């Protein structure tokens, strides 16, 4: 079986890089069409859903919290205060750099251990193993927010498609 580290950290990194590229295309689209950046960054697919900024922040937070919870690493909270495409890009880059520095042993040595996720006002949630936390919460939550961000940009007219989301997934033979 593939190690938990190999299933998680490199995959988070790959898709965070794809998110960065998608966001850059969104910014270029806004610049080319004269659309205000704030319109795209604040756009909500439905009124009770958050905008693009939150979706990017949530992808970054989910990946970092995964590494910190599973690896039992000290978590340093990051303020979700980005207001521009450039700041979101920096957030993605810092998250990728952090994840690239995570020791595989820190993740793999805890794969079969139970995990409690404390979500503050939402309560505490138990997962039988870190592997279960990854497969049933962390990765689905990450892709939910990535897909939401992608859909926000598509809805606003940014010229992105499935291959932007899936960039570097396929290897031609």
From TrEMBL:
InterPro entries: DinB/YfiT-like, DUF1993
Cited PANTHER family: BLL2446 PROTEIN (PTHR36922), DUF1993 DOMAIN-CONTAINING PROTEIN (PTHR36922:SF1)
Coiled-coil annotated spans: none
Endpoints of the signal sequence: none
Protein name: Uu.00g097030.m01.CDS01
Lineage top rank: taxon: Eukaryota
Provenance organism: Anthostomella pinea
Pfam families the record matches: DUF1993
């Amino acid at each position: 079986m593939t190690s938990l580290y190999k299933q998680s950290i490199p995959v988070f990194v790959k898709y965070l890089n794809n998110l960065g590229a998608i966001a850059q295309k969104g910014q270029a689209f806004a610049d080319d069409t004269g659309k205000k950046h704030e319109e795209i960054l604040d756009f909500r697919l439905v009124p009770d859903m958050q905008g693009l900024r939150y979706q990017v922040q949530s992808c970054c937070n989910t990946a970092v919290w995964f590494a910190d919870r599973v690896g039992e690493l000290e978590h340093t909270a990051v303020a979700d205060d980005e207001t521009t495409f450039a700041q979101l890009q920096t957030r993605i880059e810092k998250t990728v750099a952090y994840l690239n520095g995570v020791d595989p042993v820190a993740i793999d040595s805890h794969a079969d251990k139970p995990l409690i996720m404390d979500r503050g006002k939402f309560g505490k949630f138990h997962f039988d193993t870190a592997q279960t936390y990854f497969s049933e919460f962390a990765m689905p939550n990450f892709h939910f927010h990535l897909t939401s961000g992608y859909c926000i940009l598509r809805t606003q007219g940014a010229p992105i498609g499935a291959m932007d989301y899936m960039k570097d997934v396929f290897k031609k033979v």
